[in-house]
């Protein structure tokens, strides 16, 4: 088996569309920038990633509980959190073709890190470059006729109430830019309604929305995405120890689900977001996007969030230690990852092109627990009623426990190719011997491509062993 090493974004996008993982949004209308839809395979993979994250972060922990808060929240939430005043990116527009570009990304091309610069600071840099004869150009049409840099809010606005009212400051609401806002607003409710004691965490999975200027690179950066976040509340004296504990937990989680350690690395932020006291990213080697990029953030947020929400709401958000009866504002440590970006990382990692005996195949070597379809079931021939009926019977039997797919399209070779491309670990074929002779089926393994004959009576225990051995 000869493995080729050329992953490109075009190949991943093509596989995603061809096999029903990810579709561009509003495809029949020509698409809708930076929004994507998840097809039959994509939704399964997404669900499996969510389940795996929830299992590790909530189900297996005695100190973490779950939450599902609304996307809309009181607008004051985002005033208190600093997002209304400070969650923005500098933009430059092309006067000729009207393309909108991230000013910081444009300066990056000249080796200038403008990540935390104000619009004025960026404009000074642009003037300096221009004096050196280095003019910025539109990335779309190449024109040098550009506007000055100005700040552009990433907050997505909407309005609730009368649909005919004009959007004004009075009726504006925001679609949450991060899911953790709902956790802070429910911190007191969770404290009062459950048995949690410091240190404890609240975890949530849900949609977040950002008006990203530079929304490209497929599902890496989109305007609508899902976040999986944990907010861990603790006494500030425990921060150092717990922070490194959680960094290890999150790192190991990726290894446990099949990401190779050489494809991960840590990045420590020098410039920090307004809420953060210390921030690290787990970066993944998105080779098809040019190299290591942020996959997940792990941040110390201090007492910023609870203090701000307490100040703006007028409600006490402290924690009274039952043993000492002293009150503190807990500090917060968070882990935050985009589910869609995570899905891209796992697809990227799993995507493999192999050459076997002169024939090439594409195979997604996904961890079995994440594979969208666990078992595919085929009748050897499409038009043989008894084979089809038996295969359907096996599908019904196994789909009680596993996501299965019945397939009678094309020849067996073609069916294997399709299942390889969607990462199905096992294919079961019903043939004439199954019916006439041995009451057994052929099982083919995705990775080794080896085949074995198993009695139908033993099928349940066979798969039980295979899927519980991880
Ligand atoms: N609550 C902290 C927070 O939201 P962040 O670094 O802005 O921090 C955390 O985002 C994670 O959310 C990122 O590491 C990334 O995985 C994901 N994410 C952020 N913006 C995204 C976007 N526009 N599209 C897809 N995923 C995004």
How is the topology of this model organized?
Layout: E1 2-4, H1 9-18, E2 22-24, E3 36-38, H2 40-59, E4 64-67, H3 76-80, H4 83-86, E5 88-93, E6 100-102, H5 103-108, H6 119-131, E7 150-153, E8 156-159, E9 172-175, H7 180-193, E10 200-209, E11 224-234, H8 239-256, E12 264-268, E13 278-286, E14 291-302, H9 304-313, E15 319-320, E16 327-328, E17 331-338, H10 339-350, E18 351-356, E19 359-364, E20 375-379, H11 385-398, E21 404-406, H12 412-422, E22 426-430, H13 432-438, E23 440-445, E24 451-455, H14 459-468
Parallel strand pairs: 4-10, 20-21, 20-22
Antiparallel strand pairs: 1-18, 2-3, 5-6, 5-7, 8-9, 10-11, 11-17, 12-13, 13-14, 14-17, 15-16, 18-19, 22-23, 23-24
Helix pairs in contact: 2-10
The protein binds glycyl-adenosine-5'-phosphate.
Ligands bound, unique: glycyl-adenosine-5'-phosphate
Poorly predicted residue ranges = none
Q: Tell me about the biggest sheet?
A: 7 strands, mixed
Biggest sheet, strands in spatial order? 4-10-11-17-14-13-12
Q: Care to count the β-strands?
A: 24
CATH superfamily label of the largest domain: Bira Bifunctional Protein, Domain 2
